[in-house]
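yo

u said u wanted the structure for the complex thing, so here. seqs first:
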Amino acid sequence: MAEFYEWLREGCRRRELGAPKDVPEKMLQNVSEDGALSGRCDNVLAEEKMQIAKSQLSLEPMGSVLGARVHGLDLSKPYGDDVKRELREAFAHHLVLCVPGQDLSYDDQVRFASVFGKADEKQISKDEKGEGKSRERGVMYVTNIRENGKQVGSLPDGEMQFHSDGSHRDIPYRATSLWAMQVPSRGGETKFANLYAAYDALPESTKLRIEGKQCKFIYQVDATFREQTREDDPTLSNAVHPLVKVHPDTGRKSLYLSRLMTRYIIGMDRAESEALLADLFDHAEKPEFVYAHPWKPKDIVIWDNRCTNHARNDFPADELRQLRRITVSEPGDTSASSAGY
Ligand SMILES: O=C(O)CCC(=O)C(=O)O
Ligand SMILES: [Fe+2]
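structre next:
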């Protein structure tokens, strides 16, 4: 597998250039003539539950379009570079990983998040008066727990629309990890959408129409629905990103947009932009591109914000749900925003 990704990265993705000799022929069937990789090579995965050499990790596909459960790993114990490399390869391939049954301290979660980039750890900063003040960056609890009627975490209740974390910032979060502490008896699944697959499935005419276009992304803290964000509020975090985004590691194109955060296509007549975005939102949320994760306590899940969207299903308001959240930034990102979305 490692060689296969090397081969992809080098851009030698055309069949005629030849593939490394240990790449199964069935895997190559997922590489089209122009070099694009389609699907997740499930035909291979279904037959051979992939045993990764050396570390005894095994991967079990979760959904038909993305996601893998990682077995054979205790993240509270030390693990070496081989395991880290294999986790990164699995992440590039499956986009969402779940390691079930983990007893994770905060530091263990930071160590795990650091495998994929720069984990956003707690930081001590000074307040405006220069007095020492402790502030947490990065760690956040997604929870509906309330103390004296006051919310103690973020994104507390109910359904949440599709988005990718930090797409309203100039440098979005590379990845996000959530560790399940308490989960409701039903509902509350996090849904993940494969934006590579959504792009690949677009008609050629649409691909041509959106190529080179850029979108404005805006987000208001704790909004869970598009309508809650006031587009005309200049204080809201906002950024511009390409609608067709090339993933820096895989070289694959994805349809980079979301119902919650993408407001309009820059340079396009507003009515035309609204109509096109409405179609594209519906397209990117089609069930065939989505896997819904039914949480179990002690699941640690990490997803790639550069090629997936996520959303949340509703859950009973009288049941507690709590997940510890640590984001992963791009290694060069030094922007000092507070713990964010
Ligand atoms: O609560 C969830 O399932 C997801 C919340 C979310 O969007 C996030 O943590 O970024
Ligand atoms: Fe999110």
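The chain is about 20% helix and 25% strand. The pocket of fe (ii) ion (ligand 2) is lined by residues 163, 165, 310, 341 (CB under 6 Å).
cya
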